[in-house]
Amino acid sequence: MICQKGSRSLIVIDQIDREININFPIRRVVSLAPSITESIYALGAEELLCGVTEFCDYPKEAQLKPKIGGYSTVDIDRINLALPDLILASKIQYDRNMKSLEATHRPVLILESSNLPGMLKTIEILGQCSGKKAAVEMLIKSLNTRIESVTAKTKRLALNQRPRVYFLHELETWKTFGAGTIGDELTDLAGGYNIGRDFGTGYPRPTLSEIARANPDIIIAETGYGENPQAPFEKALNEPQLANVKAILTRQVYGVDSSLISRAGPRMVDGLESLARIFYPSIFIAGHQL
């Protein structure tokens, strides 16, 4: 990403390689993605937020910001009423709502990542455009240090040394993380092998019989959403068709908050650390690496 600062504007290259001209300084921002909202708070730039989605739930203070609709169903009228200098959107809005967003005659940046380097790039863009250069440097340094403290211990593990992991990403369908997803990358960096990648890219939906044949060592259910936040964990632990897989027989079934392993914000690093503790409890203890 390159920003060229003039006396009145910024030219920003967003994360789908679009050059966007933005008036500077930016005083009011609408965020259309929970990951973006989290990143803005992590930089201490939350005073810029004049609108967020109904799904922007972290930190708790974000829930008090004015709402401009859902994640994929943004309300253009509410965005206009918020009078933003800048709209921060993700790829789903680019695909579904870009014409409507452009019709507001306000600059729209697309910030989208499916891996840790992409998340760090999002933070860099947000920091430069909000004038939080020092905060960016501190946050990125901290996150990189935490990532390295995990990967220094896991990066040399051979495939046959890694636990085979299955993720229950969606309760109703048993949809999982395939290759190229956040969960797939975090599993690899934490020292595991994501068997979901054997079923394809994106978010494949293997049958329970296929999962049983794959015989995971560990099953991780994404928790923290819906009317019963623990329902995915309970489902994974008690599914009759998986009763004989190794993860069930050895009680290696865990719940991990979905926002840590599915949301491309700074807490991805929390997710990485959580997975490392699950995979190697004797090495990564109580949140602190030995």
From TrEMBL:
Highest rank taxon of the organism: Bacteria
Keywords (A to Z) from UniProt: Signal
Family the entry assigns: Belongs to the bacterial solute-binding protein 8 family.
Pfam families: Peripla_BP_2 (PF01497)
Domain Fe/B12 periplasmic-binding intervals: 28-283
Protein name as it appears in the record: Fe/B12 periplasmic-binding domain-containing protein
Gene Ontology process terms (BP): cellular response to iron ion
Record organism: Dehalogenimonas etheniformans
InterPro entries, per database record: ABC_Transporter_SBP (IPR050902), ABC_transptr_periplasmic_BD (IPR002491), Vit_B12_bind_prot (IPR054828)
